[in-house]
Amino acid sequence: MLTSLTPSTEPDQIHPTSLSPEPSTPPTAVSPAEVTADTQCRLSLFPTAAYWISNEDQSKTLVVPVKGWAHVSHNKSLSRYLLLGLGKRLLSPIRSDRSVESDQAYEERMGAFLDGALTEQKSVRVVVRGLRRRGGASEYTDGTCVQDLEGLCVDGVEVWPVLLANGLFSDVIKIEESVIKKWQELGDETVYFWDQLEVIAYKSKGNQAGVNAVTTATIVSQDGISIITDLDDTIKDSDVYKGATAALNNAFFVPDAAAIHGMAELYKLFYTNSKAAFHYVSASPFQLLDMISKFLNDGDFPSGSITLRDVWSQRSRRAYKDEIVKDLFSKYPNRRFVLIGDAGEKDAEIYARVYSQYPDRVVKILIRDVSDGKDAEKLKIVHDALANVPSEIHIVFSDPFTLHSLVNSLN
């Protein structure tokens, strides 16, 4: 992903500011770690959704949330080797794929849970470089030298986030509307996404300086349609509804996660017809971020924010999703929402509760029948949960292609 501006062509004399929220330290099992010759520093960035706020002088400011994880892998550690081996042996009975690729997937995904937290403050810089280029990968890799990265931002579109005890960081960058318009004027819309920004985080000093990650921040307009969607068994074949055994096998041993047939096409139709914004919300642990980001990119799903859970926090899965959905309704008070989930979990119950609070802002509730009509008990639970939601608002579906006419009618 490239951007619309080089340092020499970015607008002068405009200095957006960053706002640093008060950090809190949640419960965590992630231990602090130092970056040495025997460890590997890694940065993972969450795709986010930006939102507009109005200023007293009638101008607008774009608030770009920044969220990521700075972590350290002890790849040469004997304890890591033994723990990964023990885990693989214990999970062997549930494993469906015994290929080399499956081994690599397991070591990468399970290994993330053994990573330590980078706690070297003022070592991670996050920059909004400009508009995201269409159809291109970022020119920045972990081999990029710090000197090249330092020249990315000359206008203050940056932040130095506080690293929490678990390595997570969360901040915002505020960009004046005039800067966004300038970028759009300088960037051809056939070459750049006018509604997407390229965000780069990199380690700016110390051992392994230059390690970086790139993601997308979607610019969400103040009104329009937003899609809040679950991931597992809604768009990603995770087998969560089949129980822990199948879910663990899919999470750790399946090299390439499979998309639910037709869901990417449905979501692209939402984007093309209604310019819908997407918010991917899952109760999966944040350590699986890289896997989930790859799944969405490889599956050609529209860009959007990804929200994952810190399983060591005190929130239940249901309370966690309630909180995320309410936060999105609050950040986008003039937008209407389509809520999409599946019949395998509590999505229908959660979305019915959201509808009771925001009946004028929920356009549709779409629940995927994971059993394709074969599990009457699950379907009854879904219909009971949606009993107080008008029938014209909710749809239980098996084939996503049957919803295309609905998308066209929303437009």
Could you describe the 3D structure shown?
About 30% of the residues lie in helices and about 30% in strands. It has helices spanning about 80-90, 100-110, 145-150, 175-185, 245-250, 265-275, 290-300, 315-330, 345-355, 375-385, 405-410; strands spanning about 20, 30-35, 40-45, 50-55, 60-75, 115-120, 125-135, 160, 170-175, 190-205, 210-220, 225-230, 275-285, 305-310, 335-340, 360-370, 395. Strands 1, 2, 3, 4, 5, 6, 7, 8, 9, 10 and 11 form an eleven-stranded mixed β-sheet that branches. A six-stranded parallel β-sheet has the order 14-13-12-15-16-17, covered by helices on one side. Helix 7 links the parallel strand 13 (about 275-285) and strand 14 (about 305-310). The protein is globular, with a radius of gyration of 22 Å. The two termini are about 30 Å apart. The model is unreliable at about 1-30 (pLDDT under 50).
